[in-house]
Amino acid sequence: MPNSLIRIQETNFDVSTELAALRKGDPRVGAVVTFLGTVRDMNDGSQVKGMTLEHYPGMTEKALEEIISQAKARWDIYQALVIHRVGPLLPEDQIVMVAVTSAHRGEAFAACEFIMDYLKTAAPFWKKEDTPDGARWVDARIADDIAMVRWNQK
Amino acid sequence: MKLELRFFASLREALGVSQESINTPESVKTIADLRVHLAERGLPWVEVLEGTKVLRCALNQHMVDANTPLQDGAEVAFFPPVTGG
């Protein structure tokens, strides 16, 4: 088990190491689903040279704990890990990792997608992109709100 | 009452403030009242707090709507819709 299942950090992380730690010593686990979010070099038609991620220390951790506890109440999963980076990032860098363990894949797939959809709309992170026309704050996407609302209709 | 204010992302930049402690008058009872009270400071407050289309707020680090009553000693944050992940 890693030190904590919610981590906000500037440093990079190694997916294999994290997954090994997450399921170590738990032979009930038969499925591990992972989502990895990375920095694209294009957004809204502009080239992205890099970005800076800001967050609300304290609230971010609380919001992620709440999202994970909702996922645990809804699906039969064992562990959920969320690592989110903050600070300056470059294209191809890893931004976020969500990993869920369960006995069978169905529960883990659903819980992982749910956690990611909720994170996108409820966890206080903000991206500022560095483009050829200068720096700009990223606008929230309606598609992300729709993805979150969908879970309340299931 | 005494409040701890926090501002993030584009709001923080536009206001030039990330946090401050304030004492509010009796008339400020909800988050919406606080927004109006801060907007009365003039520029850039009025422009940022009333001109921003969508503003999110948190009370003691939980996202809430603008009608939520304030409590003495609370931490109140204003920020744009989140864009992490």
Helix/sheet category of chain A: alpha+beta
Into which percent range does the helicity of residues of chain B fall? Answer: 25-40%
Q: Strand count, sense and closure of the main sheet of chain A?
A: 4 strands, mixed
CATH architecture of chain B: Roll
CATH superfamily of chain B: Beta-grasp domain
Total of DSSP H or I helical runs spanning 4+ residues of chain B = 3
Q: What is the radius of gyration of chain B computed over CA atoms, rounded to a whole number of angstroms?
A: 12 Å
Would you state the CATH class of chain A? Alpha Beta
- CATH fold label of chain A: Aldehyde Oxidoreductase, domain 3
Walk me through the structure.
Chain A is α+β, with helices and mostly antiparallel strands and about 150 residues long. Chain A has one domain: Molybdopterin biosynthesis MoaE subunit (Aldehyde Oxidoreductase, domain 3, Alpha-Beta Complex), CATH 3.90.1170.40. In chain A, about 35% of the residues lie in helices and about 35% in strands. Chain A contains 4 helices and 10 strands, in the order βαββββαβββαββα. Chain A has helices spanning about 15-25, 60-75, 105-120, 140-154; strands at about 5-10, 30-40, 40-45, 45, 50-55, 75-85, 85-90, 95-100, 125-130, 135. In chain A, the strands form 3 sheets. A 4-stranded mixed β-sheet of chain A has the order 1-6-8-2, with helices on both faces. In chain A, strands 7-5-9-10 form a 4-stranded antiparallel β-sheet, with no helix packed on it. In chain A, helix 2 packs antiparallel against helix 3 (about 105-120) and helix 3 crosses helix 4. The longest helix of chain A has 18 residues, at about 105-120. With about 80 residues, chain B is α+β, with helices and mostly antiparallel strands. Chain B has 3 helices and 5 strands. The longest helix of chain B is centred in the middle third of the chain and has 9 residues, at about 30-40. Classes of the chains: A alpha+beta (about 150), B alpha+beta (about 80). The interface of A and B includes residues 62 and 139 of A.
